[in-house]
């Protein structure tokens, strides 16, 4: 019997019903054809999401450590391997974009001997599992190599250019997004240590340093996405961006750090930051998010590094607050179409910056309420789980959800389609 015409067959994700992100939803029509090119009418189709266009990221520093240990022939204990595997599974169950550490001083502690192999192995680990990888950063005054300090300024600049060229080129195809330069606002006036990058920045200037980083990285990898990244959300950062754009520097995206050790920004400040930096018309990457699950750092500290403690435990109230803060922040960011990547600065409490309880997972690999809350959004409310629909009288089915990759399966044939701004109909031949 011929099935009745079905002209409204559609697949819609839960995101459509979320008024906060419904405007980011896109729909694409897929027509299923048999090998003779005839529409498959009334066929059962399963559609599921396989990836987000919007990057949900986290650092992958532990994988670099793991690769380094293996390359050095220093095996892990069975307990260490088990914990790493547990954390690795939690990482991939939530995130799809890894930030890897290319701090010059630790990447190349001895001149001419960069730790390329460990970083490459870590990058390959993430890329092989379908994740995107960003390098952080190519130019920064902090964690600069000490062997650079005694060299004259012209040699420092030559070596800095060479470093950017070498690593942007060496990792092209694996690492195609970079924080080209980090924390430029404070760079020429930094006084916490004696480093050669701050010294040359005083002469070259902020715009000159940005130009160096972007032009050398762009020449080494023309297809790379290059960010200007900073923690300073004041007007000083806005002025720097204005000066760089006026100087003709091509910035692909703006990196906005948000380490919230002293308390969450809240929705009002987050929206203010989005408006002030969104006005430049550049994609926004929230590059470094940290939310506390314990007591907050004292408000009077201007430099977070001044808060040095041996232990900083989570608290029941802090765990609940962290989950609530995570939901509010991520919901606010996902609702803004200018935001392209959201990166959390550490999956686990183990090795967390400043010993802070900022991880989404306890040091033993147990998820905190914040992890579960974010997973409920990223892989739940904003994710299309396997859904069945029936093709209409022209063999068509509509795939609707947040921009990303979706798999369409019928009669044993599975095809991946992209849902986004391209609304052109896709024809799929079912074998």
UniProtKB/TrEMBL annotation:
Its EC number is 3.2.1.8. Keywords: Carbohydrate metabolism, Glycosidase, Hydrolase, Polysaccharide degradation, Signal, Xylan degradation. Pfam families: Glyco_hydro_10 (PF00331). It catalyses: Endohydrolysis of (1->4)-beta-D-xylosidic linkages in xylans. InterPro entries: GH, GH10, GH10_dom. The keyword Hydrolase applies. The keyword DNA-binding does not apply. It comes from the Bacteria. Residues 77-377 form the GH10 domain. Belongs to the glycosyl hydrolase 10 (cellulase F) family. This is Beta-xylanase. It comes from Cellulomonas xiejunii.
